[in-house]
Amino acid sequence: MERTRTKRLPPEIFELPVEKMREGYYTDAYFNHTREMLLRDGRHPRVVMQAFQKKHSHLGGIDEAIAVLKLCADDWDDLTVHALYDGDPIEPYEPVLTIEGDYTSFAHLETVYLGVLARRTLITSNVVRVLEAANGKPIIFMPARHDHHRVQTGDGYAAYVAGQVCGTEIGVTSDAQASWWGGRGVGTVPHALIASYGGNTVLAATRFAEHTDPDMNITVLVDFENDSVRTALEVARALGPRLWGVRLDTSGQLVDRSLWDEMGDFEPRGVNERLVRKVREALDRDGFERVKIVASGGFDAERIRAFEQLGVPVDSYGVGSALIRGENDYTADIVMTDGRPSAKAGRRYRPSPRVELVE
Q1: Which helix H or strand E contains 157, and what residues bound it?
Q2: I want to staple 236 with a disulfide (CB 3.0 to 4.6 A). Which of 176, 262, 288, 310 is the partner?
Q3: CB atoms < 10 A from the CB of 336, how many?
């Protein structure tokens, strides 16, 4: 897969707590102790450090990691840094970041930049896998409610990078998630608004349409009464051309009313193939072929792939916690000290022709 990005985000966009990072506040204590001891001993080893991970992944967080070094190292100008780009496919043990210089200048930053790389690479790689499973269909990145609010900005950007890798549209649900590329959060008419209008989905949707930008693509959740076919038709008739799509989000513990007379030879709970087809057929039969269907509720790459293999008529997928689960850990090793090999047993300096000099 070819590189999709060749420009880096400016360090200022990350709004790093620079003074705290310089103090070692976010750093594993043993790195702070190491740096302090070297300084007291008057030792300034010039090292080559390489950061890598152990999976077939897509890189995320490299611009942020570089920003940590630029803004928080003792002397950025004394360092020579080479790096890959966000979105690059990476192999196990491939160096994504090489730092050369006085170790005491950046020893206190290892915890921070490795953590950034681990988190953002996890998100980017997870989203790429989901997008590949979706066969080019757009997804909505929906894990904001499943994690701490402070991860939204970086996670949203990591999802955006994945979209660029796959050439597929990504929607995010909060403005924070879209802030690093200047986008806006998107969403549907939610259950909370429907409940606020006494459980009347049509009333909530029409009021929403009356008070929102005419250019907004309106998508409405239609499972509030567990009767998605009927509700989808009622909403489509009420909103007409203002309705962009309906979202199916039936709980995995419920069977939609439209399936009650058909149970016996398939798994009827939640959002399933039969339910999606019934909603699609009903909309088409009433002349609403242009209305899209968004499926959400427990979707991950495996489930999306199964839907696509069956040709289930979903136009877009909403995916939540599956996109932030898992691990993609990084390690950094000093592999050269004062011009001589110094890696621990089992590690070595690895030439990496793909990394580029960071200005």
Answers
A1: helix 152-166
A2: 288
A3: 19
Q: Which residues contact 281 (CB under 8 A, 6 or more apart)?
A: none
By C-alpha distance, which of 45, 26, 38, 4 is closest to 336? 45
Q: Classify residue 51: in a domain, yes or no.
A: yes
Residue 1 lies in a domain: no
pLDDT tens for 43-75 read 999 999 999 999 999 999 999 999 999 999 999
User: Strand order in 316-319's β-sheet?
Assistant: 170-172, 139-141, 316-319, 292-296, 243-248, 218-221
Task: Give the model confidence (pLDDT) of 295-316 as tens digits.
Answer: 999 999 999 999 999 999 999 9
133 and 248 fall within a common domain: yes
Same domain, yes or no: 217 and 342:
no
Number of domains in the chain: 2
CA distance 117 to 125: 12
Q: State the pairing for strand pair 330-337/340-341.
A: antiparallel
Q: Which residues pair with 292 in a beta bridge?
A: 245
Q: Which domain holds residue 53?
A: 11-122+326-357
Cα–Cα distance measured from residue 161 to residue 198, given in angstroms and rounded to the nearest whole number:
40
CATH number at 307 reads 3.20.20.70
Dihedral sign for Cα atoms in the order 343, 346, 348, 351: negative
